[in-house]
Design goal:
There is one protein chain. With 190 residues, the protein is α+β, with helices and mostly antiparallel strands. It is built from four helices and twelve strands, in the order E-E-E-E-E-H-E-H-H-E-E-E-E-H-E-E. The chain has a seven-stranded antiparallel sheet. Strands 1-11-12 form a three-stranded antiparallel sheet, with no helix packed on it. Strand 7 and strand 8 form a beta hairpin.
């Protein structure tokens, strides 16, 4: 039997995405966002408010990166969600992480995070109920230590953080329980 638990955000898991962009002076800003997803084969949509420093930077510079936060950098990732670049201009410096300029887009790559998508701004969608930054993924980089023998990211090596909106916790999930486009194939037969 189900019980009403009020109007809660009931999606689990949520990603822990690190969105990074330069400001007009080349200063790195990074924010933590759980509300984002792949929306096409080469596009990512980030549902972030227009008042974030990172959103303002993306509007001006027209490029950004999206990294997957990992267990080893949970404290830094959480800090990027606690602090605002609008009030803390040295936010990135305080993290003591390192950034290099992408060779593909005008945006910083945070070296410590294991997977990064380099994106150009495709569009910003603004409606009465939605504010979304859509990026065209130009390139993806991954640390060699998290790749399998075929050169694909191995989720069991990635230790990507996932966010729990029910109780505001971070988790990692690395147990494989089935194969996509195979586990339900039995229902295709008559």
């Amino acid at each position: 039997m189900k019980k009403n638990i009020d109007n809660k955000m009931a999606i689990f898991p949520m990603p822990v995405l690190m969105i990074a962009a330069y400001d007009e002076n080349g200063v790195v800003n990074v924010m933590n966002a759980a509300w984002g997803m792949i929306c096409a084969e080469d596009k990512i949509a980030l549902f972030i408010d227009e008042d974030h420093k990172t959103t303002k930077n993306i509007r001006k510079i027209k490029a950004f990166t999206v990294s997957l936060a990992d267990k080893d950098h949970m404290a830094e990732a959480d800090f990027f969600g606690i602090a605002t670049g609008n009030k803390m201009p040295d936010k990135f410096e305080r993290s003591q992480l390192h950034a290099t300029k992408s060779a593909n887009v005008n945006a910083p790559i945070i070296e410590e995070f294991p997977v990064v998508m380099e994106c150009e701004l495709a569009e910003i969608v603004e409606t009465e109920n939605l504010h979304a930054v859509v990026g065209k993924i130009i390139n993806v980089q991954a640390e060699e230590k998290i790749l399998d023998d075929k050169g694909k990211v191995d989720p069991t090596k990635l230790n990507a953080l996932i966010f729990d909106q029910f109780q505001n916790n971070y988790y990692i999930s690395t147990e494989k329980v089935g194969k996509a486009w195979n586990a339900g194939a039995k229902f295709m037969k008559n």
